[in-house]
Amino acid sequence: MLFDEVSTYYEKLENTSSRLGMVDILSEMLSKAKKEEIRNLVYMTQGVLAPPFEGVQMGMAEKFAERSIAMASGFSNEEVVAVYRKTGDMGLTAEEFSKKSKLRIMSKRRLDVNYVFNAMLKIAGTSGLGSQDAKIKMLVELLAASSHLEARYVTRFALGTLRLGAGDATILEALSKMSTGDRESKKKLENAYNICSDLGRIAYILVDNGMSGIEHLKVTLFSPIRPALAERLPTAEEILKRMNGKCAVESKYDGFRVQIHIDKKNRKVQLFSRNLENTTDMFPDIAKAALIEVAAKEAILEGEALAYDDVTGEFRPFQETIQRKRKHGIEEKSLEFPLHLFAFDLMYLDGEDYLSKPYEERRSKLEKLVSGEGTIRFSNRIIATTPKQIDKYFEQEIESGLEGIVAKDLSAPYIAGARKFSWIKLKRSYKGELSDTIDLVIIGYYLGRGQRAEFGFGGLLAAVYNDKKDVFETITRIGTGFTEKNMQMFKSLLKKISKERKPARVDAIIEPNFWVEPKYVVTVRADEITKSPMHTCGREGPSPDATGYALRFPRLVSDGVREDKSPEDATTTKEIIEMYKLQKKVKVES
Ligand code: ATP
């Protein structure tokens, strides 16, 4: 498939304002790719060179792209920089210089998908002495062979700023449309995605083997499983009723979720975060312990990593744990607060898929694999048959500084990538506040008034994720909880991803001063969920009388953006509606 054709589809994607429009464009485009191209085309459309969990970085820095554009068109660096200042987009800059190039017909090679993709891989993989010149040379060659429109997307891809706005769910839907497009095929594709998180691989299997290949896809080491998530209920009674009178109750640790993949034969370990980023380098002590302490040849297990003081028995909260994540000082931090992994699940063991086995079986196997006395411990738990037992355990956990509890259905499988009642969380609640914090996606920002306006940042427009429609729906503006330092940080982060128009997957009535690409997640605490005609969260239909949900008195509680959450990991519309009902219930009862 020629890259020229891909570029035309990318331009269409950029110009569509509806998500369904995106699905149509994507499925038409993907159905034109050959079997040996589809994997690369999917990654390219995601703006990556490998599945995102592999963390392969794009290879080009802005100033090298400037030099490449200058060299490919016969203009000076200064001239390129001047146009870039005006457009603010290196892709458009490359396109402009392609149009007025003084060096026509340097190459007549027509670019195709695999050629462009492999050239980018080469650019990314070039390092060491003389690598800058080599990278520039490769990009110049690509630009010289590009049409005007191709130059736009080649440049953006090289810089890692392609941002077509198609989320994973949209790409999955396009793949489903490519096959039969019915609900059944969509479900099967979603299942496959939940156990391997690799859209390129799924697309390849679909083209190569059809739906039967998709159905037979198995858990694979080093391809992370999408995490199981917990529902909420307000009382021990309701939890127990839902669990048919008996369940496990585990401590809910406020740390950092980690999925560990172990291949002992090759002495290979990888750790993945909640949003499936590779975090192996951030937790060297846990990676090391996994190879020594787990008695298995191959395994995938999951737990919560947090700093724990063995002497005082104190747990350190999430914010402190995440500080370790910042690259600097990993060594010092690991000495100051020893990290432990509180393991709570087992998904794969020595060639056998454990996802479909009941929780109790997974847990007892997990306990046989690890002694539980080293860096890897087990999550604390009891088996409860009365609400009193649950309440007592809950109080005791709160007392020791934990967040609450997670109740687990003893007979349920591991339900990858979904929030189900097989896990139910109960957190401590404060008077006059929602018991749970809410994770929101930033979709725009305001200048604010007075001093803030002068500074250039006054607050955020934030949204929840509607996973049924795969869109982001506004729920609140956030104007409090900012420190001077994080205002500065928001300003510079958001400026880089600002958009002239409302992004296609954003559903909003109100307009911020600047739209941004839905990319960053923040955590807020609020007093209450209310109904509002201003917000689109949970709003049925576009009628002016329709109401959505909003947050009352939201304030930022995360220290900046949540690095462990992607936009699709934000609180969902469905959760907000459930929390609204819970809140009403609690009010009536109190
Ligand atoms: P939260 O902000 O409450 O952690 P979340 O959206 O990240 O919510 P949920 O599925 O709602 O995730 O809640 C479960 C989370 O609790 C898991 O993601 C995990 O990080 C954490 N956790 C801590 N202890 C446990 C445990 N024993 N079992 C399962 N999850 C646990």
Which terms summarize this structure?
alpha+beta, single chain, D-amino Acid Aminotransferase, Chain A, domain 1, binds adenosine-5'-triphosphate, OB fold (Dihydrolipoamide Acetyltransferase, E2P), 590 residues, globular
What do you see in this structure?
- The protein is built from 21 helices and 22 strands.
- By secondary structure, it is an alpha+beta fold.
- Among the domains are: 229-431, 2-Layer Sandwich (D-amino Acid Aminotransferase, Chain A, domain 1), CATH 3.30.470.30; 438-589, Nucleic acid-binding proteins (OB fold (Dihydrolipoamide Acetyltransferase, E2P), Beta Barrel), CATH 2.40.50.
- The mean pLDDT is 91.
- The structure holds adenosine-5'-triphosphate.
- Adenosine-5'-triphosphate (ATP) binds at residues 229-230, 250-253, 257, 274, 304, 344, 379, 406, 425.
Largest β-sheet summary: 8 strands, mixed
Shape: globular
Specify the structural class.
alpha+beta
Average pLDDT, all residues: 91
| First-to-last CA distance | 64 Å
Assembly annotation:
single chain
CATH architecture grouping of the domain at 229-431: 2-Layer Sandwich
